[in-house]
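Example 3.2
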Amino acid sequence: MSSLDELVIVEKRKKMKEKYNKISTGMYIRNEVMQFKCFNFFNERMEIWLPDTFVKMPSAIAQVKYPSSQRPQIIMTDLSSSVNFTFSLFDMEIDKEDIEDTCKGFQSIIKKVQPANVFYENDTWELGKTKVSWFDYKASAIDADIYNIVYVTSIGKNILHGIFNCMDQESADWKEAAFQVIQSIKDLTRGEE
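Structure, written as tokens:
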């Protein structure tokens, strides 16, 4: 392939990323336009937009990928099981003012358990009538580096703990989509529209 052909391909990809850059209209990820749809979890208490090809991870795969008995309650994955959005709703009350400190607590635990992880950013955003606090980092697995976004918000008065992860080399493709997915969370117990 000539350098001109490569330049044309790069320019086409750039234009596709500019055109398909919202989960509401589709996003250009891994050289394809990915569509998103609304999912409801936790007995219709939470709504979120995820890629329409994602499925609940089969329990046999979840036990291998997340070997702890404390694995996430819901794991939505692509067909290769390499890109995941996980959700756990804890029966513990949290106030809006405590969300950021709770997320910092999760980050401290991860830093303590795996000090070799590389931490990047953290932030807190308004999310409907509550807020969401998050941080991202890279962790080393047996055969690859994994990019993670960990976030905390509330559904009703309970803590929602979520994680997005993918192969680190795909994080540039997925990061913006993952943030839009997180921002799409709606707490249906509060009557959010």
